[in-house]
Design brief:
Layout lengths: L10 H4 L5 H27 L3 E2 L5 E2 L1 H10 L10 H11 L1 H5 L9 H18 L3 H19 L1 H13 L8 H24 L4 E4 L2 E4 L14 E3 L7 H18 L3 H9 L1 H23 L1 H4 L1 E4 L2 E4 L1 H26 L3 H6 L16 H23 L27 E2 L2 E5 L4 H6 L5 E9 L4 E8 L10 H7 L3 E11 L5 E16 L2 E14 L5 E2 L2 H15 L6 E8 L3 E2 L5 H22 L3 H11 L4
Antiparallel strand pairs: 1-2, 3-4, 4-5, 6-7, 8-9, 9-10, 10-11, 11-16, 12-13, 13-14, 14-15, 14-16, 14-17
Helix pairs in contact: 2-7, 2-16, 4-8, 6-7, 6-16, 7-8, 7-16, 9-12, 10-11, 10-12, 10-14, 12-14
């Protein structure tokens, strides 16, 4: 029978019936769309991971949100996930057309992330959990979607690192920035005709014999951590990375802009110091800086206003640098983001069976690790301390009342120290005096049963009005043959007993940390690292002690200090410590014997 060739085909002819391959790919898309987010929510939003500021454990993201929202210096971290979402949205058209072609190499990234997850869960600390978020996300992308997806999302994934507050870097970066900021401000002031000197982090007016001015009479500032650039540095690094990605095209230009965030932050803080100096000279220290009330520095409105100079200078420098690098191309660079691509197949899955196998691995491995976490012992069994305790019921650290020609006198913990230190902390303090008149105050602080219950002297001393000039690790050879490394800090504090008369008290402070099995270290963050490392891999949960020796020097007029007094005091203190330290520090054998007797040996 003949057919009419002009007759239009039926609807059924135009719409082919779904094939098994099409149905498989649709099911895989739905599994990827729902399965992976469910695992991420379970790992990082639901699972009780760490004790943050509360007694009970909370998940990584909930604990992170609570912690960051209470600290103004890190609240910019709350914006980062939204910015990452926006960066992914800008690449949505490109991602929509990329095939799901995963690589088994993604298992390495996923396994590394889950290992960090377990380490942080076991050690009860959040920073390995932050790494776990990063590497688990990278593992999911590589394992299920493939290298092309990872290349497209690499900047957004890298930018996600700004979500996590790098608080341990605050002090380690702030310490070298503080004296350098003060030195640069002093150089600028001298160049413009304002005599200034700096010692460590202290920035003061220079003496003037003709006018009868002593050091610091016109202005005296101490560059604390807030004025060193560290509080604005991480936010400015985030801004520079985002600006470079959006406004610049060449990788070399982006890296240069990102690296310049550090000197720009310091430059902004130098300008801030110059504004504070100008305000002090014109209107006085109370107007420009603020008032020191007990152990708290109350900033003035002018001081707060000067703080905005940091961002003003840094942002102006960033935009100027962008214009120098790719000024004429910046407009075109900004327009290229989010530009639709040519039409193509949407999210093809060329290997559905292999993709399904990789997806099952991506879903099953995290569930397996959660099962391992359920079987992990996370109870806190604190080990025996590494210092000797008194024989009475006080459980205080032991310190002898006499040592050589030094005679000691006991001093109890003050009320302020009781309020500052955590519950369970024990403190023994003796003030020793020799026949020659040398005085040393020795304090042994035994931590409580909570983590990180010992505070660093670098944090406490500035709050008490002291300026830390420098800190150096030095060896100490004890009389029993053991050699340890201790920290030596040089500090000073100025007083004005009467108008026009300024005195300076200098002192030396030695300290080190003593672990539960004879472990010692001089640095705060080393003792934190050892706490977590030994808890996870050696099953030793240290009860740390900190030995601190304060050596005061005679008070002298500012500018008339005798440097030989400090050298002599440091040498006397080291000889005294070489004799004293073995009397309260247990050897490893003594600790192990006592721990076995008390049932606290690992």
């Amino acid at each position: 029978m003949a057919t009419d060739s002009t007759r239009p085909p039926s609807v059924s002819t135009l719409t082919p019936s779904p094939t098994p391959f099409y149905e498989q790919t649709q099911m895989l898309r739905r599994a990827v769309l729902w399965g992976l987010p469910v695992v991420l929510v379970l790992l990082f939003l639901v699972w009780p991971y760490q004790q943050w500021d509360h007694e009970r454990r909370e998940s990584i993201l909930i604990g992170w949100g609570r912690w960051v929202s209470k600290r103004a210096d890190w609240q910019f971290c709350l914006l980062v996930p939204w910015l990452v979402g926006w960066l992914v949205w800008l690449r949505r058209d490109e991602l929509y057309r990329l095939p799901l072609k995963g690589k088994w190499q993604g298992l390495l990234l996923l396994g590394l992330g889950l290992f960090f997850f377990w380490v942080g869960y076991k050690a009860n600390t959040g920073y390995p959990g932050f790494l776990a978020v990063q590497f688990v996300l990278a593992g999911f992308i590589m394992l299920v979607a493939g290298a092309a997806w990872m290349r497209t999302l690499f900047f957004a994934w890298l930018f996600l690192f700004f979500t996590w507050p790098m608080q341990p870097l605050e002090d380690s970066l702030a310490s070298p920035l503080r004296p350098r900021t003060a030195a640069m401000a002093a150089a600028v002031l001298n160049a413009v005709g304002v005599p200034a000197i700096n010692e460590g982090s202290a920035l003061q007016s220079a003496p003037d014999a003709e006018k009868g001015l002593q050091i610091g009479d016109v202005f005296s500032l101490d560059v604390d951590a807030k004025c060193s650039g560290i509080n604005s540095l991480f936010a400015l690094m985030m801004i520079s990375a985002l600006l470079g990605y959006l406004a610049l095209k060449r990788p070399r230009s982006r890296l240069l802009l990102f690296a310049c965030a550090v000197p720009l932050a310091v430059a902004g803080n130098v300008v801030r110091l110059l504004l504070l100096v100008a305000g002090t000279k014109q209107f006085g220290a109370d107007f420009a800086v603020g008032r020191h009330i007990q152990d708290h520095q109350e900033m003035s409105p002018y001081h707060t206003f000067a703080g905005f100079a940091v961002f003003g200078i840094a942002l102006a420098g960033m935009f100027a640098l962008c214009w120098l690098l790719e000024g004429r191309e910046m407009k075109a660079n900004l327009k290229r983001h989010g530009k639709p691509l040519a039409a193509g197949e949407a999210c093809a899955i060329p290997e559905p069976r292999r993709t399904l196998a990789r997806l099952l691995a991506a879903l099953g491995l995290p569930l397996l690790v959660l099962g391992i976490c359920m079987g992990t012992d996370i109870s806190f069994h604190v080990a025996a301390p590494g210092v000797k305790l008194r024989s009475d019921d006080s459980r205080l650290p032991y310190l002898p009342l006499s040592m050589g020609d030094y005679q000691g006198r006991e001093f109890d913990m003050t009320a302020d120290e009781k309020n500052l230190l955590d519950e369970g902390v024990r403190l023994a303090r003796n003030v020793y005096a020799s026949a020659a008149g040398r005085q040393l105050m020795t304090t042994v602080i035994l931590s409580g049963y909570e983590k990180r219950s010992l505070h660093r002297p670098e944090v406490c001393l500035p709050n008490q009005g002291w300026t830390v000039t420098d800190r150096t690790q030095i060896p100490l050879q004890m009389k029993d043959g053991r050699e340890i490394t201790i920290m030596m800090m040089r500090i000073f504090r100025d007083t004005e007993p009467q108008p026009g008369v300024k005195n300076r008290t200098r002192a030396i402070n030695f300290y080190w940390y003593i672990g539960s099995d004879g472990t010692t270290c001089a640095d705060h963050y080393e003792h934190v690292f050892l706490s977590y490392y030994d808890a996870v891999f050696r099953n030793i949960q240290h009860r740390w002690a900190m030995a601190s020796i304060y050596v005061p020097l005679p008070e002298q007029r500012v500018g008339q200090e005798d440097p030989m007094q400090e050298l002599s005091a440091a040498e006397d203190a080291r000889e005294f410590l070489a004799q004293l330290a073995p009397t309260f520090m247990l050897t490893k054998e003594e600790w192990l014997k006592g721990a076995q007797a008390a049932g606290k040996a690992p």
